[in-house]
């Protein structure tokens, strides 16, 4: 019998059975994936330090001594000021009129409450630093930095027994973070959901492997199947980072409307557009994205104006559960999400598919 | 959230002043999204350290590259995301 190809350095490092990392905003998904033998990272970028501490306690109660991670989007750049009301007044009339006309034509209601998209945690270095201090105080097993370079906390984190992972979109970022001593690099390709780097997953992963030295590299971007997992290992990765995969899971806390859309979507139903935030990002196509690529649309504004313009729309769509308006960040691998499965089953299906790939390639029983 | 103010130190680093640099920047917006944005410009030498261990930020001015419609003429860059010529 051949060596189990799915037992990688990542498994030894995190004491997990399978080299599958779930990135999620839902604690129930964390519990299910960790207890199924995978690893899970909870996105906490927009939570207060007190909320983060409570979530860590909740997870520990559910998974015991098993390892898990917390992800923060450490900002890498911040503008000198961030007065949203002032910025909102500067939105050009042409774009504002286009939005108001769209609102009327599609009968888009006002949001019910506060605008979540106006909560710019990443613009505030102080909030981000306090969030980080909670993770260090709580000695979470793994801290993931979803954007900025976490080098400045490495010494402190390692003294506390905390591992630190950095997510990158460019090889030069990978080299800088690997040289600084992060425990793993997450190489995120263009196929991913949301804002991505410009390089595809098939290229960014081996590029990062080449420059990361002994630092293990985890593949991210468009990964939703066991075939993707097997391919990632062949590219030199030690595991995969998956996000979209869990949005439609049974434990996932997304609205059922979004889950249905994800289950019935293909890569063609995602669009890479700057019309939501002013930066290109991959989302499910929706009324907003269609309108902004119509002939009547004015020029898309840059950030932060475009995001301020789109935030009323997004919040209204979610508040009123309007299927024709709602959208969600989704990666190109969405085609392979075909049912609302329990997270445990998603993990095990991915493992079985990956092992099948290796058996087909080698002609040997892999496990 | 803790109401205690974070220890913040402001200073000037003459060795960084005038250096040309690029910043692979970005941050969070909204509850589920992050953004990536790139800048190039000249470091003024001004810095801020936040917390302990210090999280250092340098002020970049005279921006020669910035996101379209970026309304400011400067940006604070986290030191680990700065790249100098040859990097």
Give the gist of this structure.
The complex is a heterodimer of chains A (367) and B (87). By secondary structure, chain A is an alpha/beta fold.
Give a verbal description of the structure.
Helix content of chain A is 40%, strand content 13%. Chain A has helices at 9-14, 27-35, 49-63, 84-89, 93-105, 125-138, 154-159, 171-180, 201-211, 226-234, 256-263, 287-292, 305-319, 343-362, and strands at residues 20-24, 39-43, 69-72, 77-78, 142-145, 163-168, 184-188, 217-220, 239-242, 270-273, 281-284. In chain A, the strands form two sheets. In chain A, strands 1-2-3-5-6-7-8-9 form an eight-stranded parallel β-barrel, surrounded by five helices. In chain A, strands 10-11 form a two-stranded antiparallel ribbon. The longest helix of chain A is centred in the C-terminal third of the chain and has 20 residues, at 343-362. Chain B has one domain (8-82). In chain B, strands 1, 2, 3, 4, 5 and 6 form a six-stranded antiparallel β-sheet that branches. In chain B, a hairpin with a 3-residue loop joins β2 and β3. Chain B is globular. Chains A and B meet through β4, α6, α8 and α13 of A and β2, β3, β4 and β5 of B. β4 of chain A pairs antiparallel with β5 of chain B.
Query: Please, how many domains of chain A?
Result: 2
How many helix segments of chain B? 0
Pair with the biggest interface: A-B, 66 and 45 residues
What structural category arises from helix and sheet content of chain A? Answer: alpha/beta
Major sheet description of chain B: 6 strands, antiparallel
Average pLDDT across residues of chain B?
86
Task: Spell out the blueprint of helices and strands.
The complex is a heterodimer of chains A (367) and B (87).
Chain A: H1 9-14, E1 20-24, H2 27-35, E2 39-43, H3 49-63, E3 69-72, E4 77-78, H4 84-89, H5 93-105, H6 125-138, E5 142-145, H7 154-159, E6 163-168, H8 171-180, E7 184-188, H9 201-211, E8 217-220, H10 226-234, E9 239-242, H11 256-263, E10 270-273, E11 281-284, H12 287-292, H13 305-319, H14 343-362
Parallel strand pairs in A: 1-2, 1-9, 2-3, 3-5, 5-6, 6-7, 7-8, 8-9
Antiparallel strand pairs in A: 10-11
Helix pairs in contact in A: 2-3, 3-6, 8-9, 10-14
Chain B: E1 8-12, E2 20-29, E3 33-50, E4 55-65, E5 75-78, E6 82-83
Antiparallel strand pairs in B: 1-3, 2-3, 2-6, 3-4, 4-5
